[in-house]
Structure formats: C-alpha cells, structure tokens
Amino acid sequence: MRRLLAFLVALSAFTVVPAAEASGQLASPPMGWNSWNAFHCDINEQKIRTAADVLVSSGMRDAGYKYVNIDDCWAEPQRNVMGDLEANRKTFPSGMKALADYVHAKGLKLGIYTSAGTRTCADTMPGGLDHEAVDARTFAAWGVDYLKYDNCNTQGRPASERYKAMGDALKATGRDIVYALCEWGENKPWLWGRTVGAQLWRTTLDIADSWDSMTDILDKQVGLEAYSGPGGWNDPDMLEVGNGGMTDTEYRAHFALWSILNAPLIAGNDLGAMTPETRRILLNRDLIAVNQDWGGKQGHKIRDDGDAEVWAKPMSDGSAAVLLLNRASATRTVSTEISALGLRSRDYKVRDLWTGAETSSAGVVRASVPGHGASVFRVWPSRGVLAPHTTLALDAPELSGKGEPLKTTVTLFNDGTTPVAAARVRFAVPAGWTADGSAEASVPVVLPGKSWQRTFTLKPSAQVPATVSPSVSAEYWSVGGRGSATTSTSTTLATAPGAGTISLSTVDWVSASNGWGPVERNMSNGEQGQGDGHQMRIGTATYDDGLGVHASSHVRFYLGGKCRTLTSLVGVDLEANGGSVKFEVIGDGKSLASSDVVRFRDEAKPLQADVSGVHALDLVVTDGGDGSTSDHGDWANLKVVC
C-alpha cells in the first residue's frame, strides 16, 4: 500500500491559494442581528442588551455581526408635545441613547426601525411619514447607526417620494447611518434605491420560518443580480436560522444561499437560547467570506433541473463559489462542470465549505446532497497534490408504493485527477427489508473521470414504517491517504389512487404546506384552524369539490405512475377581498402545466395536465406578483383519471 501511495503522490504538485478578505460597511453586505423574527413585539431593553452581550461572547461580533437592530414596537404610542419619538418608558426605561452607548461600548452598532407611513406595521407607534427630518435628527442624536424603514400605512403616496424624504433627512444629519428600505419589492426598489440614498432594499415580502417561504423568496432573486454590488445590496429579508421552523439541514441551505447571494446576514434568532448547531451555521467563516467578498456579481442561478439547482458566484481572487441545491425531500446527486463557473484550468482545488475538506478535480464538482439541503464549495484553478474529488452517492425514489420493491443505486464517483483504490463499500439494509445479493463490495480501483456503480433491490419482509432510510459507507485509498464517506437517503411509502376518475380531495396527500392556515378539503382556506373555510366561490360560480389553499402552497400526492390526466378549475376564492395567484402542476420535479396569473373576481380557469407515468405529483400555488396577503386559491373539481 505504501508503494501505491508513493506512486499516486508522484502524479501531482501542490499549491495554496488564500481566501479573499472583505472590508468596509458599504463594500460588503451588512451583518448583525434583528429582534423581529424571534420576538416580534415582545422586546425590551434587557433583551437587546443580552443580544449585544451574546454577539460578543459567542464570537459573532468578531466574525462580522456588528449591527444590533431593534425592530417594531420600541416607542411610545404617540409623539411627545414637541413632535418627537420617545422610547417606550416601560420596556426601554433607560432610553435609546443609553442603549446605544451600551452597544457601542461593546464594539457594536445600534439599528432602529420605523415605517414610511403614519404608523408602523404593528401599529404600536408613529411612523416617519412627514416627520422625516425630526426623526432623522433624533436617531442621529441617540447614536443610531442603521435604520430599517418599513412600508405600512402609507396613505397611498408614491414609494420613491416617501423613501427619498427619509434618505435626504438622514444625509442632512451628517451621521453615517445605514439606510435599509423595507419596501417589499412592490415598486422594484432595486431600480431606484440607490438614488434615494439607500444601501440595501428588500426584494420581497417578509420571510417566514419555513422551507417553502425561504425557497419562494429565493426564486424571486433570480434576475436581480445585475442590481446588487458595493454601496447597494439586494435584501431577501433576515435569516430564520435557529428559530425552530426548519431542520438544521434546511437552515444550512438557507444560510449558504443567503451567503452566496451577497445578502445582508442579519440573524433573527433568540441568541441567548442558541443551540451549538445554530452557532456553527452562523459562524461558518468560509461562507461569511463568500458573502463579504465582491467578485463582480452576486451569486446567481446557472442551472435549474427541477428539484436540483446550481448557483454560482465569482470571487475577487479568481476563484468561484458554487452551491448545489436539492429541493427534493430525498437525497440526490447534483453536479456541475467547473467550466460553467467561468474557470479554465487543467485541474482545480475544491474546498467543501461545510467540512473544510480540500480535494482535486479534473473539471467536475459533485455531491450527494441531502433532501432540502445544499452542498457548497469554493473552487480555484490549481495544480496540487490533493485527494481526488470523490463522491459516494445513494439514489432512490422520493416516493414508492407500499409493499412494492424499492430500487436503490450506489455510485462511487472519482472526479479527481488521480485514482481511488482498494475501496470497500458497505450497504446498510434497513430493518424489515431484504436486499438481493451481498451488501458489501470490494472495488479494486476507480480511475479519474470514472465511477463504480451497483444497484440493490430492496423488498419488504415485514410490516415496515411509512419511511424507509437506507444508507451506505465506503473506505478507500488515494494520494490523500485513507478516505471515507457515508451517505443516506429516505423514501416515503404511499398508496396510489385506485382506478377510475378520482377526486383528489378524497385521497391522502403525502405532504402539504400553506401560506396561512391548513390546506382544506372541499372548502376554501379560512387562514386559521382546520375546517374554518366556506363553500368555494370563484367568480360567479360555487364549488363543493376540491382543495382550498393560500399562497404560497405546495400539496404533494403519490400517483405511482398509474394515472393519465389531471383536470381542475382554478381561481382566487372570494373569501378574501382581493388577491392574485398562479397555479402549477409538477410531476416528478418537472413542470407539466401552469396557469396565467388569475385575479380576484376572475372566473375559474380550466387547467389540465398529462400525468402519464408520474409518481410524485405536486400542486403549487404562488403569489401573482402583488403580495400574498389575500391569496386564497381554489383547486376546484380537482380530479385525476387513473
């Protein structure tokens, strides 16, 4: 084995490429913490001081998180006799100047909130409309360093006019105050934000602590990369990492995506109750370096294969960051040619930004990406002695029929420049299942650019749970010495509809998520508890069969490849006074049919899709472009022919 290692080492040379560093408040997106996502209006002086303390003690300040931002609900309900804002006497008894001094003494900066309207969004305090000059002077006198300016109770006045007034007022104070527009993207602030003095602008409505909300906002960033850069940043809203509505895998994807987007990294969790895993995510120095670096363009999507996406970002040192996103629920192998990142070389150094492992690639970046997860790498042109870029993949369908055999495929990829040798692969058969053939395999060698593959068919031998989770591990040798890898996946077991014309309202769905309230069967969405809707009404017609949802909504069914046609009448329910939505039918990750934007009071529109051979059916409803406040969508007369 020593002779083998010596031979492999002789094939390469070694180079180190340092990571770039970023500096300057306007040269890079701001980083910090905001009170809203964790506490909403339940804030007080001590919670803000505690957040400042933990930013220091956790190492977050030293990693770049320097803004401590107070959101809505901090002020007295009315202005004083002089027309000034005052801190709430009960919750902030020391006042904002004392709090700013406390924050500044810790090497941090203080942010504050108001709205470009007569009242703030929580309606607990006055807004800044027509009081811009006095409020800006007040903030400057207190020592405020950052203003989040919201968009509620606007009296219908033009956004650019309202936001310019505050921008001018902040500039007139002479104090360096970061100006963050929270205009929700309604009037495309990326086109005019800089001209009113802003350094960042929200591109969407508020984020929620869910995978669907986060990825819906992600989708709305596509095409905005041309408007972001030093001095002015697209803001897809604050981070939800650590707030409990997503898994750690989803939070890692969330943080990695916001990092590659050059988004402001404004944490929104309860810092005093932060778990070790949340802290590890927020303190990932490699991802922070990607976020703070400017290489000429913010991260952007370069490929979309349905549930698998590739996002890339150029770096100032000539390297590139690349993120492999898996929007499916099961593990999936995702890859990209490095040439698609704009790099050209004979070989490349690839650094995994989660593990820190460095490998050599001949031209492909690949990973086994967990469901709702993201693998993220930084790639440099390089000629060095590094272990080959190796991926152990385990592919299985997201959904399978109960009681049916399950096919899984194990692949060991070598995308490096030197061989992988003496590999030992072990497949772990889940309890209650049997596999055809031996669960272990010896692989003498996998040459560069090649792969080894084996397919296992699993059969249930007993009553099994609704989810089956096989896994596989491998040990091998390369120029980097002894290497190992493990991966796993999961398949949900479900029952397909029977033969005939079936109303999907009578079929158990695999999963369902909704913007507000639960998905309803045979009634509209009432936004609160199960069963609080009414008879479905679209335009002038009523319907008693179908699904009532609220954008953004995602309902998944298992068809098992046994159905042919899906039909529905779709539209905005009259339950809410407004709204516009778009409907889409997705089969096995591919778009099969979609509606145009349908609006409040429109008559129902027919929607039909060929679902032949489809196993996983996804019914998706998204916002029509004017916000999702009243977006009650109905899938009326929703049927499949099987």
Written overview of the protein:
The protein has three domains: 31-292, TIM Barrel (Alpha-Beta Barrel); 302-493, Golgi alpha-mannosidase II (Immunoglobulin-like, Sandwich); 495-641, NPCBM/NEW2 domain (Jelly Rolls, Sandwich), CATH 2.60.120.1060. The chain contains eleven helices and 41 strands. The chain is α+β, with helices and mostly antiparallel strands and 642 residues long. Helix 9 (248-260) runs parallel beside helix 10 and helix 9 packs parallel to helix 11.
What keyword list fits this structure?
single chain; about 650 residues; alpha+beta; TIM Barrel; Immunoglobulin-like; Jelly Rolls; about 35% strand; disordered N terminus
Shape: globular
Query: From the helix content, strand content and strand pairing, which structural class follows?
Result: alpha+beta
How many separate domains?
Answer: 3
The strand count comes to 41
Q: Strand share of the residues? A: 25-35%
Strand arrangement, major sheet: 7-6-5-4-3-2-1-8
Give a short account of the largest sheet. Answer: 8 strands, parallel
The N- to C-terminal Cα distance equals: 58 Å
Proportion of helical residues? 10-25%
- The CATH topology assignment of the largest domain is TIM Barrel
Which parts are unreliable, with pLDDT below 50 for 5 consecutive residues or more? 1-24
Total helices: the number is 11
CATH C-level label of the largest domain: Alpha Beta
Q: What average pLDDT do the residues reach?
A: 93
Q: Based on the coordinates given, report the CATH architecture of the largest domain.
A: Alpha-Beta Barrel
**What is the C-alpha radius of gyration, as a whole number of Å?**
27 Å
According to CATH, the homologous superfamily of the largest domain is Aldolase class I
